[in-house]
Design a protein that fits this description.
Blueprint (H helix, E strand, L loop, with lengths): L4 E3 L5 H4 L11 H17 L1 H12 L7 E2 L10 H19 L6 E5 L2 E9 L2 E5 L8 H14 L3 E5 L9 H9 L4 E3 L3 H10 L9 E3 L4 H12 L4 E2 L7 E6 L5 H12 L6 E6 L2 H17 L4 H11 L1 E4 L3 H11 L3 E5 L3 H5 L7 E4 L5 H6 L25 E8 L2 H17 L3 H9 L7
Parallel strand pairs: 1-12, 5-6, 5-8, 6-7, 8-9, 10-11, 10-13, 11-12, 13-14
Antiparallel strand pairs: 2-7, 3-4, 4-15
Amino acid sequence: MPIPILSCDRNSKEKYSRFLSGAREDLTTATNRVLPILEEVRTKGDLALFSYTEKFDGIKLDKLTIDPKTIQTNIDSLTKEAFLRAKSNIEAFHNAQKRESWTKTIDGNRLGVKYTPVPSLAVYAPGGKALYPSSVLMGIIPAKIAGVPRIQLITPPQKEGIPEILIWLAQILEIDRIVTVGGAQGIAAAAYGTESVPKSEYIVGPGNAYVAAAKSYLSGQGLIGIDSPAGPSEVCIIADGEANPKWIACDMLSQAEHGEDSSAILLTTDQTLAVRVRNELEIAFVERPKRLAMKQKAIYENSAILVFPSMNDCIWFSNELAPEHLEIQTKDNDSVFSKIEHAGSVFLGPYSPVAMGDYISGTNHILPTARGSRIYSSLGVDTFLKRVTFQEVTKESLETLYPFVKLMSELEGLDEEHGTSVKVRTKETK
């Protein structure tokens, strides 16, 4: 049951429409299950957190938070070097995103924008097999650069203790505390605040369906800000006949490795490349059988190779797909990239696999999925900045512009108070 190779054009909707459905995890069941948990944390605070941690994690906690500065870690030098290199690159990239407040004179008045950071952030880090320390860097570094003053890490407790790598990262990133509560109850603690856990205004980071459901529900209630709604991991690759089929197959499988609901779409004009990539995928399944069933389901059921008549058709489809990750492996990558309108993060050239952005190059790997890049961007410094507009109107400008305000307020039926609030400041009332 190899990956399907589909010959398409822009009118072949019956062939490609299912890939444009914007796969998003159905959180209905998870939301129904987490609502009682959220309410109990809201009303009972720490007591609910202790109870749910014992129930779901099998751990009876003595306290809910730890100060990372008080814990000794023993991280090997090579691991430190890797994460410090990643930290340096991520900081350099995100430092370039800094915003400066500004003012401008418009029609005689002083107008401007003042940027202020969100006051607090919680970063969720899953535990167990789904340990993603790289996501801690991705969530915290842009927030620190934005100037967020209070940051805490939320992570489920482990029977063997909080992983040392998370503690060490919390130390080098200089965050306030680690909250040893996971799942929906950990999200609720950050959103509502409890006796031990300060409330956070924003929360980011990956998690299971219950974490996602809690974040989505609480965001909908206006209680927290969140990163863009998440769905399964995805990659789209635009490649021509000169691309390396083995490398493309590896890149497709790197997304399939995330889960059986992941997707990998290859767009090409070259039928020969399509067949060679399909063959390389089958070879890889034999040579690298780890998580085989999961990878095969992702590739066979959610992925495809689409062969279009022209490179412009490939670009068109990519823009329709608005993928989380987009790789471009063609003889003129910049020309193709210039026509890309929607993508979470783009990887140009044969030596730019998604894994580089996942870990070390410096761009952020917290990205919109499920066609979300049409309206959302990758996590960055802007995520944690609020734009406050201001104006200082001069007496002369108020006098000059009042007739227009009078007309417009009358047109909208708001002249009695809106119009009057300007009129009383003019010569007409003096």
